[in-house]
Amino acid sequence: MGLKKMRKIWAVAKITVAQAIRMKIALLFFILLVIILPVLSFIITGDGTLKGKLQTFTAYGMGLMNFLLCILTIIIASYTLSSDLKQNMLHTILTKPIRRFELFIGKAMGLLILDLGLLIIFSGLIYGLILTIPYLTKPSDEEMQAAKNEFFTARAEIEPVPIDIEKVKNLAMEDFAKENKLPKDPQERFVFEQRILAELNAQARSVPPGMSRLWQFEGLTPKDREGSIYIKYKFEAVSPPADEMVISYWSVGDLRPLKLGLPVDPYQTGRKDKNKTSYEIEMPASLIPVDGHLDVVFENYVENNTTLIFPEGEFKLLYRSDSFEFNFVRACLIIFARMIFLAVLGLSLSTWLSFPVVILISFVIFFIGVISGFILDSLTYVENLTLFFGLLKYLLYLLPRFDGQHSPIEFMVSGRMISWSFLGLIYLKLFCLQTVFAGLAGISIFSRREIAKISV
Amino acid sequence: MNSQYAIETFSLTKVFPDWWGRAKVIAVDNLDLKIKKNEVYGLLGPNGSGKTTTIKMLLSLLYPTKGKAIVLGGQSSDTAVSSKIGYLPEESYLYKYLSARETLDFYGRLFGLPSQVRKTRIDALLDMVGLSAVARRPVGTFSKGMARRIGLAQALINDPELLILDEPTSGLDPLGTRQIKDLIIKLAERGKTILLCSHLLADVEDVCDRIAILYGGKIQCQGHVSELLVQTGKKQITTENLSDDAMQKIRKIIESECSSYDITVPMEKLESFFIDIVNKAQSDKLKTSGAISTTALVDFLAENGHAVLENLVEGTGRNQTQTETEMVKQTSSETAEDKSLLENLTKAAQVEKVETRPGKALEPVASSPQEQIDKQLLDSLTKDESDSTEKDGPKKDA
Predict the structure, then answer these.
(1) Are A312 and A405 within 8 A, CB to CB?
(2) Does the residue A200 lie in any domain?
(3) Which residues partner with A433 through β-bridges?
(4) Residue from A19, A88, A456 whose CB has the most chain B CBs within 10 Å, to mutate
(5) 8 Å CB contact of B91 and A88
(6) Quick check: A15 and B27 CB within 8 A?
(7) What are the tens digits of pLDDT across the range B298-317?
(8) Same domain membership, residue A224 and residue A210
């Protein structure tokens, strides 16, 4: 019984693939990508270094593949069912013993197979081109090493343990209360509290000249203890020096024994870095003790004569935790999840809308996904959201997001690890929630609607 | 559920509303249709009389506004029911890029048929509709008639109990039309129920047991074709050329019975004339890129030559040459029967009521004149064209 059902679904899937392949558009996109990708790998130079070239090619190549495959999926998904409906193909098909949901699933499966096939071909092509770039450019050993460390890797990114500002604020408030310095009026007291909180927040991110700052990391588990770890940072000088250069001193290691008066042997280095520029310091992973704790002390030289501010999220510890290849596969799987969503969305909409409307709505949802991070970011700075913006915000949360931290391409470019849990989360949200919702809505409409047109 | 009916509708009504939800057109109006099992039922009516809408409601492609339709004891949206239905829509809706074989294979898969059965049936069907030679050509390049043939083949892929044909002969050449009509008769003999919907009256008249004439979504008239069309009080005799002597005898007999009579030389029907010409061209092996028809269907039409249909039903191949020889035997014995029948005609004034309906399994009329004439036509199709010149068509002239 189940086998019979599968046979029907499979028949529909096969027809859908055949239909898509015979649409000239699939061929056009195929040729476009097959020509553009190799050409891109030759002409792109990036910042002149091997790493730069690899990063730029990955950004453009994967970006283009993602974009074109998503567009192709939208076009085919919007076309396949709506054309069957329009050309009355379903009169013959649905009078056969196939349930409407089986037809829907068959169509979705066909699109899925097609998408998977195209994705495998093009991601394979991109991977091949990425591997050939180092051979064609003949880089120096140094460049090769940099590419290996920062591109051909999958590095986990760890943020330092955050300072519990709320707790510090409460302590400060207690002190003020003891000294009877708190305002009596509750309104005024609230304002006062907010000011202290803002002050503490600023303090937590800034290092005045001649002062030092300690960051602590917990739960570090570098895969390769003989390898390297990297501290990635960027600071902004409040009053930048004339040459924009800032001198600093770093001590990294397990500094906890100092509290007990025991000696320590941290990794130490002095640096001269440009203001507002992102840097990475490489150091041995053996600095991390078995319990995964690490202290990082940063010292702002008094000669700089400026307070340095570390913007939020710009101070991180990185270490290699997986191979480039596995990361690449995970990145492609994220793109695949998007394509599945778009395929099911297109099918679902075409159960009750005509082709032009379906394709328009699908494109709108796709492009909103591409810029929703930007819109949401801008909305977070709006203090009092009007009803419209409030609704917009929730609507955007409901729709899938394809940009910013949800973009696998950015992970690949910076050699950042896409963790399985991150991938799982994306599948949970994009696939299990949004795709299944779109699919069920489509199936439920499709099962209820009249297939034949009114003709008297 | 009354099991004697294949299709039963109860006050089936379909109202198409306008944009505001107000009733705009009443396409089908309280239709009570009762189609018995193993009946060839014709739904007639002018354009827009609600024939297709009725069929679409029977097939759950449209939902009734009121009333309900029971098909094979259930709802046609139930896969158990739809697996026993074959449907040929008013136009053959086919995927243009699939070949004829791929098309049939796809529909076979939708029935969940195993690949071996699919293959045998597809071969038999392609043979039957005369498209074996073009089986690998995309359906999109087919003429309308050829697409119609594929449409018919897909309707038969599951060996349906109930066959619903919407304008089956539209776009077909006279040969194809004839084949479809013959096929309908044969399928009926095998116990199938057929609902035929057409506005070509000749099609319906030739094959249907019962007809209903629809107008404005209502049945205006319903009944047996023979009962509805028979001209009571008139008789017609058709013979081979007779000697003057025999003619005189017949004249005398008739003059003694009634006052007025009319003797004419019967004209061949254009349909059978056309079929003869095309048969000749095909036997001369003239080149064509179109459908090659006749043989397979004629083989299968021969009284005992059910080879193609057997393949359809059982998915097993049977030797066709054997069938052909059986058929030849059959037809030669029939010619002898014909002669004795003529004698009976000239002797007895009391003749049985003319049966317009061709051979039928339910109530086989052993040797009605009409059936004999049909067989003669079959002879003309199967035998050499020299034999098949001055034969009468299947219809009596009014």
Answers:
(1) no
(2) yes
(3) none
(4) A456
(5) yes
(6) no
(7) 443 333 334 555 555 544 33
(8) yes
CA–CA distance, B294 with B301 (Å, rounded to integer) = 10
The verdict on A378 and A414 lying in the same domain is yes
In angstroms, rounded to a whole number, what is the distance separating the alpha carbons of residues A32 and A34? 6
Q: Tell me if A425 is assigned to some domain.
A: yes
Q: What is the pLDDT of residues A329-381, one digit of tens each?
A: 999 999 999 999 999 999 999 999 999 999 999 999 999 988 887 887 777 77
| B48 near A CB under 8 A | yes
Domain segments of chain B: what residues? 5-228, 234-382
**Contacts A4 to B, Cβ<8 Å:** 112
- The percent of chain A in helix, strand and coil, each rounded to the nearest 5, is 60, 15, 25
Is residue A160 assigned to a domain?
A: no
Which residues of A151-274 form beta strands (DSSP E)? 154-158, 206-207, 212-217, 228-233, 236-237, 245-253, 267-274
Cβ of B109 within 8 Å of Cβ of A450? The answer is: no
* A249 & A341 share domain: no
| Cα distance between residue B32 and residue B219, in whole Å | 8
Judged by CB atoms closer than 8 Å, whether chains meet at A88 and B25 is answered as no
Residue of A3, A15, A92, A107 to mutate when probing chain B, most B C-beta within 10 A: A92
pLDDT 10s digits, A290-337: 888 999 999 999 988 999 999 888 899 988 888 899 999 999 999 999
Instruction: Judge whether B195 is closer than 8 Å to chain A, CB to CB.
Output: no
Q: In chain B, what residues touch A24 (CB-CB under 8 Å)?
A: none
Pairs of residues, one from chain A and one from chain B, whose beta carbons lie less than 8 Å apart: 88
Considering the segment(s) B5-228 as one domain, its CATH architecture is 3-Layer(aba) Sandwich (3.40)
Tell me whether residue A157 is in a domain: no
